Amino acid sequence: MTIEIPNPCLVVLIGPAGAGKSTFAAARFRPTEVVSSDRCRALVADYEGDLSATPAAFQVLHLIASLRLRRRRLTVVDAVSARPRDRRPLLELAAERHCPAVAIVLDLPEELCVQRDRDRPERTVGPRVIATQRAAILRSLPGLREEGFAAVHVLRSPDEVDAATVHRAPRRARNSAPA
C-alpha cells in the first residue's frame, strides 16, 4: 500500500501500545519530523515511563507540533491517540496552521501488541491497557474522517505495515493558498 500524504501536513499515528508506531515512523520519516509522546515524557521527566509527566509531555508535544506546522514542516505525531479527545488538539493545531491532517492507524491484532509489549526491555503497559486502547480505537475508527482528517489509512496486519510506503506530494509554494 502506498500512503499519499500532502507536504506539508500533520500525520497522526494511531495505535495501541505495541502496535509498532515508533518503528513505522522511524522507517518512513526523518527523525526531526517525528514528535513522540514517549520522547517528550523523557524530556520533561528523564524517563519515558513516568506517566505522571504525561500532561507536561503533551504540552511539549503540542508546542513542537505547532511550531513545526507554522514553519510548514511535515510533522508526525507518534502517540496512542486512541480517543477523539486525544486527537482533537492535534486537529485544531493543523486547522490553525492551514495544514491537512492524515491519520495512519495501525490496527494490529491485540495478541501481537501484548506480545510486543511484553518483549520491551524498558517498560510495559500490560494487556489490560492495550485492550482498552484498542477498544477505543476500534470504536472511533468509523468516525475519523468526520473528526477532520483529510485522509485515513488503516493497516491491519504486520505484512501490510511492512509493505506500506509513504509518498509525499511535492511541497507547495510558500505563498499558495491554504488547504
Question: How would you sum up this structure, described in words?
Answer:
This protein is an alpha/beta fold and 179 residues long. It has eight helices and seven strands. Helix 3 packs parallel to helix 4 and helix 5 packs antiparallel against helix 6. Residues 175-179 have low confidence and may be disordered.
What brief labels describe this structure?
179 residues, alpha/beta, Rossmann fold, five-stranded parallel beta sheet, two-stranded parallel sheet, 8 helices, 7 strands, 45% helix, 17% strand
SSE string, helices as H and strands as E: EEHEHHEHEHHHEHE
Low-confidence stretches: 175-179
CATH topology: Rossmann fold
Annotation field: number of helices: 8
Number of strands: 7
Which value, in Å, is the CA radius of gyration? 16 Å
Kindly, what is the distance between the CA atoms of the first and last residues, rounded to a whole number of angstroms? 25 Å
Structural class: alpha/beta
Count structural domains.
1
CATH superfamily: P-loop containing nucleotide triphosphate hydrolases
Kindly state the percentage of residues in helix.
40-55%
* CATH class assignment: Alpha Beta
Strand content: 15-25%
Q: Order of strands side by side in the largest beta sheet?
A: 3-4-2-5-6
* Spatial shape: globular
Biggest pleated-sheet summary: 5 strands, parallel
What do the pLDDT scores average to? 93
CATH architecture: 3-Layer(aba) Sandwich
Break the fold down into its secondary structure elements and pairings.
Layout: E1 2-5, E2 10-14, H1 21-28, E3 34-36, H2 37-45, H3 54-70, E4 75-78, H4 84-96, E5 101-106, H5 110-119, H6 127-140, H7 144-147, E6 151-155, H8 158-163, E7 165-168
Parallel strand pairs: 1-7, 2-4, 2-5, 3-4, 5-6
Helix pairs in contact: 2-3, 3-4, 5-6
